[in-house]
Amino acid sequence: MSPQPDPSSAPSLTEVETHGVDRIPDADRTATPLDLFRLAFGGANTFSTCVLGAFPILFGLSFWQGLAATVLGVVAGALILCPMAVFGPVNGTNNAVSSSAHLGVHGRVVGSFLSLLTAIAFFSISVWSSGDALVGGAHRLFGLPRGDLSYVVAYALFACLVLAVCVYGFRFMLFVNKVAVTSASVLFLVGAIAFAGDFDPSYAGVFTDSADAATQSLFWPSFIGAALIVLSNPVSFGAFLGDWSRYIPASTPRRRVIGAAFLSQIATLLPFLFGLATASIIATKAPDYVDPAAPDFVGGLLAISPSWFFLPVCLLALIGGMSTGTTALYGTGLDFSSVFPRLSRVQATLLVGVASIAFIFIGRFGLNLVQSISTFATMIITCTTPWMVVMILGFHTRRGWYDPEALQVFNRRQSGGRYWFAHGWNWRGMTAWWVSALLGVLFTNIPGQFVGPLGDLANGVDISLPLSLVVSAVLFLTLLRVFPEPRAVYGPEGARLARTVDVPVPAITGPGAESAEPAPVTAANGG
Predict the structure, then answer these.
(1) How is 449-512 classified by DSSP, letter by letter?
(2) Cα 225 to Cα 457: distance, rounded to the nearest angstrom
(3) Closest CA to 215 of 225, 202, 227, 206
(4) What is the DSSP letter of 248?
(5) What is the 3-state secondary structure (H, E, C) of 58-113?
(6) Among candidates 433, 329, 337, 333, which has minimal Cα distance to 387?
């Protein structure tokens, strides 16, 4: 049996993390499912989630219609996301590396690329929304000018603090999120008190009985579009869950890990509903701020806030910006170090961080991308979801059995092993991914933002995500049946829902291959 980790031996907060995407030794796995909950919930318990929560109102829905779309999006997203948490404890590495088993040693770069784009998108949303709230709150409290210089300082403050936490690594990030989960939740509850007098759940939106036929015909496209934008938030964590769960012992019951990931997203109903409720108040009292052509949720929130709530707004901005930024940026720096092994985790984190900060400033002051970043995020999720489907179904067909040494072949600049397939590419998983992602983009229909070439075929309803989910699942399982994988990639119990073929496993060759001892391979822990 593997030695049990000793929590008392965990590194201190100020000790820079040395582990990259190499398999975390059993003795260093001192995290718990509760830590996973804190990281995943803390990363979404922020202003940026409130901004996403305002979209149902921006799309013209009533409060109750928006509530239904929000709950649908959060629950569906949580169900899609939560199985992605099991790869970390099983393999002791991040999800992009684990995807080598299903997309091939080289195909794993797909996950790295998707995580990079996701991190930049949600890091930008976090910094922009939190920076705007901090400047706006400081303006109302202390008369701070709301010029470009103020925003530059606020954005730089958030970005540099986030980068510093990510450089220190997992333990420091976990500490930040422990503080953020409690404090941000309390501040949102305080906000509920601040706006309770103005909130009217009967806010009707534009799809009323008196609306004309043209407006009524937009209801379902708007409802589905709002639900998909909400759903993009939990799904955005798919590429990152392994970054945090890899520190959880492999012996931890799988149901606890999955449950922690699921509940972390259900808990985000708190910031989502705060955004939805306050957006309905803004639409009534300050409708100019929810103009779909130029929405400004943060400005509208400050416009309707009582003066005593300005300080909590600033605190929420600071705490939320730190929490979301660290969870988005940490994993991408970690994975980037495996794609470019000459870079250490710290060096890769600094490089990705500087590039992301440059994007934030150029996008805000040079190209004015603030309003289009939500479209960008939704498009990324459309491409990420079929990748997650391939991973989850692959885990199921393999019965949770993996070869940790073969997963590390790419990172060590080696070749061969169980997951070499066709020169490092498993075209079954790759085909299921890119075909489904392409169809999803073609069928995307986000009202007022982006409509794909085939986006109007379903009467304006965005069917991109359901379509990519179904196509990726059916296509991947079909390819596994028609073109069986090598028997060697499955464990001692054999394949589930798939056929196999006996072919020799190419030997692992390259740097360190002669001295590498195969790590023991066990099935995923049940329970």
Answers:
(1) TEE-TTTTTTTT---HHHHHHHHHHHHHHHHHHHSPEEGGGS-TT--SSS-EE--PPPPPBSTT
(2) 15
(3) 206
(4) S
(5) HCCCCHHHHHHHHHHHHHHHHHHHHHHHHHHHHHCCCHHHHCHHHHCCCCCHHHHH
(6) 433
Q: Supply 410's token pair.
A: 């790419």
String of DSSP letters for 265-285: HHTTHHHHHHHHHHHHHHHHH
Q: Using an 8 Å Cβ cutoff, are 52 and 215 in contact?
A: no
- Over residues 214-241, the pLDDT tens digits come to 888 889 888 988 898 899 889 888 888 8
SS3 content of the chain, % helix, strand, coil (to 5): 65, 5, 35
CA 441 to chain CA mean position, Å: 18
**33-499: which CATH architecture?**
Orthogonal Bundle (1.10)
Kindly give the parts of the chain with pLDDT less than 50. 1-2, 7, 515-527
For residue 380, count CB atoms less than 10 angstroms from its CB and return exposed for 0-12, middle for 13-18, buried for 19 or more. buried
Distance CA 460, CA 480 (A): 34
CA distances from 70 to 76, 106, 128, 429 (A): 10, 37, 22, 31
Query: Are the C-beta atoms of 124 and 300 separated by less than 8 Å?
Result: no
Encode pLDDT of 101-153 as tens digits: 999 999 999 988 888 888 787 788 778 878 888 888 888 888 888 888 998 99
Distance CA 251, CA 9 (A): 18
Judge contact between 408 and 415, C-beta under 8 A. Answer: no
**Cβ contacts of 371 within 8 Å, gap of 6 or more:** 294, 295
With both helix axes pointing from N to C terminus, report the angle between 148-168 and 109-142 in degrees, rounded to the nearest 10.
130
The SS3 of residue 10 is coil
pLDDT score of 481: 96
Q: What is the pTM of this model?
A: 0.86
Residue type, 101: A
Three-state DSSP at 446 gives: strand
DSSP state of 201: T
Name the token pair of 335. Answer: 């994975």
Angle at 213 between CA 211 and CA 217, to 5 degrees: 100
What residues does each domain of the chain span?
Answer: 33-499
